[in-house]
Write a structure and sequence with these properties.
With 226 residues, this protein is an alpha+beta fold. The protein has helices at 21-27, 59-65, 119-124, 139-157, 182-194, and strands at 15-16, 19-20, 32-33, 37-41, 48-50, 53-55, 68-69, 72-83, 88-98, 101-115, 131-136, 165-171, 174-179, 198-208, 215-224.
Amino acid sequence: MKKFCPKCGAEGKPMHKGFCIDCYLADHPDIVEIQDMEIEECPNCLRAHLGKNWTSSELEPFIASKVKTKLSEPTITASIVGETEKGPVMLIKVAGRLGENEAELSKEIQITLRKRQCDVCSKKQSTYHNAKMQLRGPEEAVTDAFRAVRNENRSTSRKERMAEVFRFEEVKDGVDVYLGSAQAAKNAAAKLVNKGAKVKTTYKLVGLDRKTGKRRYEITYSVRMQ
């Protein structure tokens, strides 16, 4: 006698705990657990706050990592299948094993994007900076130096956003460049020294770092181009 599912009456289907695999999965939605999510997105740089970091990484792998499942040997994928005024609609697919049988489930969730400035963009729009470079000298030499600083920091800031040039100001005899990273400014100053510039470094105590409790200094590199 063929086994049949007491719920749907189907015969010949893979069975699990007395029910066909489809009915068992339908009656046990907790086998795959993932809920609608709210994620912060910076309106300026469009980076998302995923976990502890603001990142431009793709959303799908992060969402897939948040899925909990009771299937063994699971393969989990997430893909955007739609868009609402709140944000993207994502389809979650989970394939694995339930007992001796292969099983696959899918579920759609709504991602709500909440706008909030990331830490770096917030600092860039304030007067915050960790280092200042005062580029002085002949106009053409200052222009070349400014380009060199921007090129150096574009490369570095791909890995560390605080290395970005936060802002710059044209002054009477040159350009003042404000940076989020003291190390990035130091590296840029070293590049200019190699180009024949003379550099003087000064430090100004501006307070304590809230996270570390250590003193925080703003560093100024006075760069005289030849």
